[in-house]
Give the backbone structure.
Amino acid sequence: MTLPYCVEAPVSEEFDRAYFGLPDDKFLFLMMFASGSIMERKNPDSVFEAYKRAFGTDNDNVGIVVKINEYSDEDITYVRKALSGYRNVYILSDTLTKVQVNSLIKAVDVFVSLHRAEGFGLVLAEAMLNGTPTIATNWSANTEFACSEAACMVGYKMIEIEKDIPPYKKGYHWADADVDEAAGFMERLYSDRDFL
């Protein structure tokens, strides 16, 4: 018998956009990764690329929030370079409590995860539980609770890992999300607020 993970996602109204220094007048996408974890697995590059394909630098009505855990100065530089030319980029690197993280996810318009693999996808489940529209790779354990009726599930192709990325080994396979499809979901969620 498979017992589902028990998910709770408490939030607090005190942790609103203003608390995080985020504007109220922008349509905000959020992605998260940890520098000390396996960045290649969380795949922020594909999120940045999808965002750039969906929105030009002249669209001042949208923005992207990047939450980095265990960050380094190189991580900040990496994000700024990846999104060079875009004005509404908000990098958050403070250590947050679980309630603050949940509140941040609830405060934005869309949560995005173009992961290559997930153990469970707890943050995805918490985002969905709090009613935040979610774009996610249609692969790995998150597919046990996420489906196309409840989230924007992005197609993928399986690719071979070309070098050891501990604990993943060269020759293993994981998902590579369809960036164009993800960009399409971003555009749709921005233009059709009733889509999800």
The helical segments are 39-42, 44-54, 73-82, 98-107, 122-129, 179-191.
